[in-house]
Amino acid sequence: NLTPSSSIKDWAPAPTSSISRFPIQPLNQFRGASASIKRPREVTHFSYDATHTYVEDESGINYYCPPRIGADLKEGFDMFRHYEDTTDPHLDSLLRAVASKERKTGVKEHADFVTWRGMMTKLMTAPFDMFAEFEMLATLHDGTIYIEEDFPSRAAQRAQEASRPPKWQDPGLPNHKMMTYWGYKFETLSLLPTPPSSTPREVINARGTAPVSNYAQHCSIVRTSIGPHKLLLGGEVDGLSAPKPSPSSSPEGNIQIPWIELKTSEALPPHPSHRDTLKFERKLLKFWAQSFLLGVPKIIIGWRSKQGILTGVQELETGAIPGMVRRGTGCWDGNVCINFAAAVLGWLREVVKEEGKVYRVRLGKKTGVVEVREEGDGGGGIVSREFREWRKEM
Ligand code: A3P
Ligand code: MG
Ligand code: MG
């Protein structure tokens, strides 16, 4: 005790900062019937316009109209208007839309968790993805846990992907960037701003030469539950396969919105090997989880050749995917994902329990353990000031 403080620094063990760990294995504990889940119901929505500015309307909604098969998904790459966040978006637009809804109804949209759908997708799919990694921040505010992606980690990951050496044959074309483009090009070829029945033929045909941009978006915010946990989730929806039913068409609000999720994937050969099927079914895990969480009933796959030519489209019912995989390679199990998600959320409620602290939620590649550690005091900007003030006023 009399040791000078300088040597205490040298000898004392690192302060036991409280780290809580949630091991993913063994998966058997999560098998069996899934925890109760409710069909997600839309609470509100918003769009981003062509400058990626938040707008509180349906202007970002697009309608599905089958694309021309044989189209080249590489076309127009040099004109790609690629939006990427340069500052931390936190949960701001989601909370802004929720506050706006609350102003209209006067009713507080309480939930145990509020986050972007993407965070839940990462949590849910972790049991079947050895390479999964994430860094999130969580904070407890007024009885609700708010979870966001750690923006610096995402920016670093993006920079790393962008700097990977190109595999693509064309000189100077980074593989990753072109693959990102393909996905958005497929969306542009498959969507219209108005229902196809009321869209002039010229407009439909002009999609092939339209510039591709991901600035505009439409986001749906849903209320859902996983086991005993109530969630408010916000996420981008690609389009509608039929007009959106008005909320008044079902007083209980139990309506299925015919959202679609568009995905590109490399076409399978006529006689796929086990390896081909496995690769595709692993991809289906992400497709399914992402759509399941927002209640998107249909996924439309754009099959493409290695060179990026659209060779066909296929519609999959989101709800049928887990069964398909069970009868196929069995490489993942949707019930395990749901039960795991319910268990992780329960654990987070035990761990993220001090108001006004920021917690880091982390999964390192191949570690198999989700870790939570205290990051610091203050809200960390996770819950916007605008939203806090609104809730105080309520
Ligand atoms: P694909 O999924 O068809 O490749 P989303 O499918 O979620 O609607 O996203 C649309 C497109 O954005 C994707 O289309 C892909 O091109 C791009 N994209 C989404 N997430 C990405 C990521 N993590 N890295 C690279 N591109 C991504
Ligand atoms: Mg999308
Ligand atoms: Mg998509």
Structure description:
The chain is an alpha+beta fold and 394 residues long. The chain is 30% helix and 25% strand. It is built from ten helices and 16 strands. The protein has helices at residues 5-11, 92-105, 117-125, 151-163, 175-190, 201-205, 274-294, 321-327, 334-351, 385-393; strands spanning 19-23, 37-48, 54-55, 63-64, 113-116, 134-141, 144-149, 191-192, 217-226, 229-236, 239-240, 259-266, 298-304, 310-317, 357-363, 369-377. The strands form three sheets. A ten-stranded mixed β-sheet has the order 1-16-15-6-7-5-10-9-2-3, sandwiched between helices. Strands 11-12-13-14 form a four-stranded mixed β-sheet. Helix 2 (92-105) runs parallel beside helix 10 (385-393) and helix 3 crosses helix 9. It starts with a helix and ends with a helix. The model is unreliable at 1-15 (pLDDT under 50). One magnesium ion (MG) binds at residues 238, 261-263. Residues 180, 182-184, 186, 238, 263-264 line the site of adenosine-3'-5'-diphosphate. It holds the Pfam family RAI1. It is found in: Nucleus. Belongs to the DXO/Dom3Z family. InterPro entries: RAI1, RAI1-like_fam. This is Decapping nuclease.
Shape: globular
Q: What is the percentage of strand-forming residues?
A: 25-35%
Task: Work out the helix count.
Answer: 10
Supply the helix-strand structural class. alpha+beta
Name the strands of the widest sheet in spatial order: 1-16-15-6-7-5-10-9-2-3
> Low-confidence spans: pLDDT under 50, at least 5 residues?
1-15
What's the SSE pattern? Answer: HEEEEHEHEEHHEHEEEEHEEHHEEH
Bound molecules: adenosine-3'-5'-diphosphate, magnesium ion
Main sheet attributes: strand count, strand direction, barrel closure:
10 strands, mixed
What does the average pLDDT come to?
92
Distance between the termini: 53 Å
Rg: 22 Å
